[in-house]
Amino acid sequence: MPIKCKFCDKPAFIKLHYPKMYLCEEHFTEYFERKVKRTIERYKMLKPDDRILVVVSGGKDSAVTAYVLKKFGYNIECLHINLGIGEYSEKGERYAKKQCEMIGAPLHIVRVRELLGAGIGEVRTRRPTCSYCGLTKRYIFNKFAYDNGFDVVATGHNLDDEASFIFNNIMNWNTQYLAKQGPVTPSAFNGKLVKKVKPLYEVTEREVVAYALANGIEYEIDECPHARGATTLEWKAILNEMEEKRPGTKINFVKGYLRKKHLFEAELEEAELRECKVCGMPSSGEVCSFCRFWGLEKPVDFRIKP
Ligand code: Q46
Ligand code: ZN
Ligand code: ZN
Description:
By secondary structure, the protein is α/β, with parallel strands linked by helices. It has one domain: Rossmann fold, CATH 3.40.50. It is about 45% helix and about 10% strand. The chain contains 11 helices and 10 strands. It has helices at about 25-40, 60-70, 85-105, 110-115, 130-145, 160-170, 175-180, 205-215, 230-245, 250-265, 290-295; strands at about 15, 20-25, 50-55, 75-80, 105-110, 150-155, 185, 195, 275, 280-285. The chain has a 6-stranded mixed beta sheet, sandwiched between helices. Helix 1 crosses helix 8 (about 205-215). The structure holds Fe4 H S5 and zinc ion (2 copies). Fe4 H S5 binds near residues 120, 133, 224, 226 and 227. This is Rhodanese domain-containing protein. GO terms for molecular function: 4 iron, 4 sulfur cluster binding; ATP binding; metal ion binding; transferase activity; tRNA binding. It holds the Pfam family ATP_bind_3. Its cofactor is Mg(2+); [4Fe-4S] cluster.
C-alpha cells in the first residue's frame, strides 16, 4: 500500500521532515504557497501595487520565486543577467526565457560581455571570479531597478542559502556581513539602493525542487563551473547532515540569528556613502567598485527602450 497524503486519499508525493508529514502534489503546493505568503507578510516584503523586478538566472530558485509571485497576482517583470560564462550562461538564458513565457511575465536581458566587453571569468585580475561576479550582478540588478523605477527587487535565495551564509560568516567571524544579512534590505540613499526581498527565505532547497517538479517548472540543473569547490557547498552539506539528524535545524538556526542580529549591528561601522564620480550611485570611495573594476568612464544606462 502506498503511503497516503495527510489530507486526502492520494498517494504521497513528498515526505516533509519538519513538520513531519506526507503530502500529495496538490497539498504540498498549497502548503508551500502558504508558507511563502506568510514569509512575505511577516517581513512586510511587498505591497499589492509594488512594481517588482525578479532576478531570474534560469535556475530553480528564481524561477519558483517569479512563478509564485505571479500566481499571487503581483505586478512583476523579470531581469536575466547573462554572465557570459560559456554554455552555462547560454543555457541559463534559454531557461529564463522559457520560464517567463510560461507565466507571461516580461523579461529583460542584460548581457555582461556585450555591455562590458568581457564575460565573467574572462577578466585578467587578482580578484576571485565569484567576488567580481557577485559585485557585477548586484550592481546591475540594483541600477536596472533604479533606472526603470521599480519599487523592489526580489531574488531567489532560499533557507539553505541563508543558513549556509550565516554559518560560513560565523565560522569566520565576519560580523560586518552578519549585520547586513536578512530577508529584507530596505531602500536607502534616496532610493538609489532599491529595496531587496527574499520571498523563499523560509523554504528549503528540497522544497523548492519539489515545488518546481509538482508545477512543471523547468530549470537549469548545471552548476556554474566557477562554483566548484566553493565552501558554501561544504557548509550546506554539513547543515543537511544536521537537518537529517535533527529536523528543524536550519529554520531554527536562521530564526535564532534574526533574534540576535542586533548584536552584530551594534558592531557595524557604517561606511559613509557618497556618489560615485562616474555613475552617481552610492559608493564608499570616489569611484564605486563596479565602475572601478570595469574601468568605466561614463555610467551605464539601463533604461528600457520603448
Ligand atoms: S558567483 Fe561564482 Fe556564482 Fe558568479 S561565478 Fe558562477 S559561482 S555565477 S552564484
Ligand atoms: Zn492531498
Ligand atoms: Zn560607479
